[in-house]
């Protein structure tokens, strides 16, 4: 097919709108499986409405998809093959609308094949006699994302420089050293993902940050920098630090551009800039991995914005403890969750609304995503293996004769409580985090649980990121929280035991 044709073009004589909807579904299979699955429900619902009309059945507009499907089936209008195909599309669409997990191309293709069976049946039974249905055809993936020309130029120059000045090599290398060299990280890493090529360095007193290409002109939103927010606002007013490209290559003396600031502000900003860059890398990887999906971001965390979440009203009935924010959002004609900005920290711009209020909103949104997932269509049956889900996680600890209980409703919550407890008792945690705490009960795994950078030993970014700011050093600890509760408790038990704390985890004993 050329660019002006599409598979379901043969539907145009029956319904131009239905044909165009099918075209968009086809285009979204490889760009956003969630979108394809969710909107396929609308496609089959329209077909069933037409069938209901053709058969002269009295139709209530309020009838849901499942009820209409069951009605037609009970009255004998659906053959088993089509009934099953309709239920498959409906169930997968419901999952995509409620569940925040990542959906696969294979799932979208499965729904696409079911749609073909449904359309073929509909056209042959109810369509004009002169409309013929072509043989099934798999959709073609769209072209892969390529490097921007400016970034490609940087990459080529870097590779050409390597060709001109290759790393020095000795004439003979002992066998053991040769093996070591083979497994070591390359001297100059070649980034394969568009946008991640280092474009410039920003330094401060011997320390250096690499700015990737996709951040070359990034807006430095002051609310993303907790300790440097006012400093950034003042610099921005002087046109010194509104976007990344306005920053000097060396941040020493940056404070001299505004009054009443000192070197400490330069240092704090440099540290927070490093955190900002790492968080943006994680976000970029997430967006590239789950193209076509919508997210809400708050600092280092994110939420998948499902179709159901978009519809939730921004009212006091839905969100508690943030009346001033809700009132001002409504005054700006923002009435539903789907109208909120992707970067939630922007909401701190409203009067009497701080980051604490925004965090309350984020936590409640996150809870709604979980609730919607748990309440997804009851007839969806999954066969995933999972560890037992506990209502609350807790560990019993004993240190210097004092008994305590550390608890939390989730892995991130109990880890943060545990880190706070450890620092309150002045135990030597920092060196363990600096070395990287491996996930699980041993150190044989390939993923970090807690580290100073959100990157695993294999250079993959953390999948689900939380942060904890040390009360003692001020450093930000990154927590990989895409794990099951069992592994979370095992990791916590290992850390506490190595710090000389007696640990008792009844939940693991029960397992």
Automatic annotation (TrEMBL):
Return the Pfam families for the record.
Answer: DUF4145
Where is each DUF4145 domain found?
Answer: 23-109
Q: Which InterPro entries match?
A: DUF4145
Q: What top-level branch of life does the organism fall under?
A: Bacteria
What name appears for this protein in its UniProt entry? DUF4145 domain-containing protein
Taxonomic source organism: Mesobacillus jeotgali
State the organism's lineage: Bacteria, Bacillati, Bacillota, Bacilli, Bacillales
């Amino acid at each position: 097919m050329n660019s002006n044709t599409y598979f379901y073009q043969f539907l145009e004589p029956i319904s131009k709108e239905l044909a165009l909807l099918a075209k968009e579904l086809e285009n979204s299979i490889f760009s956003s499986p969630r979108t394809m699955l969710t909107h396929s429900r609308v496609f089959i619902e329209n077909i069933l409405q037409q069938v209901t009309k053709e058969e002269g059945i009295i139709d209530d507009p309020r009838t849901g998809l499942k009820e209409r499907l069951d009605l037609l089936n009970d009255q004998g209008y659906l053959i088993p093959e089509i009934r099953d195909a309709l239920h498959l599309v409906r169930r997968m669409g419901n999952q995509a609308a409620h569940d925040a997990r990542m959906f696969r191309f294979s799932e979208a293709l499965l729904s696409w094949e079911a749609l073909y069976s449904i359309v073929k049946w509909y056209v042959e039974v109810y369509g004009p006699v002169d409309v013929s249905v072509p043989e099934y055809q798999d959709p073609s993936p769209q072209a892969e994302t390529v490097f921007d020309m400016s970034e490609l130029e940087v990459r080529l120059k870097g590779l050409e420089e390597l060709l001109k000045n290759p790393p020095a090599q000795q004439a003979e290398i002992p066998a053991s050293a040769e093996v070591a060299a083979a497994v070591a990280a390359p001297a100059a890493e070649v980034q394969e993902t568009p946008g991640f090529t280092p474009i410039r360095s920003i330094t401060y007193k011997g320390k250096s940050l690499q700015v990737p290409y996709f951040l070359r002109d990034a807006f430095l939103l002051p609310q993303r920098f907790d300790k440097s927010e006012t400093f950034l606002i003042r610099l921005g007013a002087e046109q010194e630090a509104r976007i990344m490209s306005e920053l000097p290559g060396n941040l020493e003396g940056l404070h001299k551009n505004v009054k009443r600031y000192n070197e400490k502000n330069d240092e704090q900003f440099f540290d927070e800039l490093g955190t900002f860059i790492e968080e943006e890398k994680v976000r970029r990887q997430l967006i590239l991995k789950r193209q076509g999906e919508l997210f809400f971001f708050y600092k280092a965390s994110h939420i998948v914005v499902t179709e159901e979440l978009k519809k939730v009203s921004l009212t006091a009935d839905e969100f508690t403890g943030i009346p001033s924010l809700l009132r001002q959002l409504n005054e700006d004609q923002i009435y539903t969750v789907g109208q909120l900005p992707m970067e939630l920290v922007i909401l701190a711009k409203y009067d009497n609304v701080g980051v604490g209020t925004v965090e309350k909103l984020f936590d409640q949104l996150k809870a709604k995503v979980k609730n919607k997932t748990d309440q997804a269509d009851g007839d969806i049956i999954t066969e995933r293996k999972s560890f037992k889900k506990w209502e609350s996680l807790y560990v019993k600890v004993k240190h210097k004769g004092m008994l305590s209980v550390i608890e939390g409703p989730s892995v991130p919550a109990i880890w943060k409580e545990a880190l706070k407890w450890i620092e309150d008792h002045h135990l030597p945690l920092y060196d363990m985090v600096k070395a990287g705490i491996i996930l699980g009960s041993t150190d044989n795994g390939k993923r970090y649980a807690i580290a100073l950078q959100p990157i695993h030993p294999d250079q993959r970014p953390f999948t689900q990121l939380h942060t904890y700011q040390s009360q003692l050093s001020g450093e930000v600890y990154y927590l990989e929280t895409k794990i099951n509760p069992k592994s979370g408790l095992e990791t916590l038990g290992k850390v506490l035991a190595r710090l000389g704390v007696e640990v008792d985890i009844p939940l693991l004993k029960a397992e």
